[in-house]
Amino acid sequence: MLTTVIDAFNPIGGTESLLNFISPTIGDPLVDLFRNRDFADRPIMPEQNPFGPPEPDAQRYFGSVAPHWKAVTDFLTMASGGDDVVPGEIDVSPETLEYMQGFVLGAAGGFADRLIGLGGKLVSTDPETEISANDFAFYRKVVGDVPPWQAKSSFYERLKEVELGLDRAKKYAEAERWEQFDAYVEQNADVLSLEAAAKAARKELRGIRKAKGTVQQAYDLGKIDEATYNSERAVYKQAEDLVISQFNTLWVAQVIKPAAP
Hints:
This protein is an all-alpha fold. It folds into two domains: 42-145, no CATH class; 149-256, no CATH class. It is built from eleven helices and no strands. It is globular, with a radius of gyration of 21 Å.
């Protein structure tokens, strides 16, 4: 309520959080990182999986992050006694470094960073690395596209919405408040109808993550070479993208229901 009041009377407008409003401008990136939200209220780095153990921050990044920032955080992790499982004394996400350089160096720094990042992506053998039109400095202004991480972010937000809806309906049923239960189910029927699809997507992703972990372990132990490792990871990346795409498509059809042309 306080944030809404501030927005209503703020002559500048655009206050996204009370912390951003009361902090000096120089403190905005720290507030954004604390909230894990950028100026457009998008996640700066992937959220921690609420159903599993926390990942090191150095492993929390989107496929669109520049490889050189990933190399920096990998070095800091190893130099401070960590690895891809156990965080080092210095544990920072490459998304954090990329976000901070954008704030400090501005548009010129972002342009240079994008050029360096594109070069790194073009020579990268990591199947998780994603190249999109947004990586090309001038082409992106004319064409651009939806960042790959955005589909993944939307996927998890939609899963949570389905699971929240199911939890609320369950609480009405457990309290035997059947009138409210019926009204809630009727009002949220589109979202609740995706219960089976949401559970199936969660199960498939758990299987994919388990398989990726097995491949990672085999590579770390020297049981498979780098070519096999990258090939296997590419297969699992495609499988993960397919699960996300299929659920998002189903969500659009069931919940958003775009109007027929």
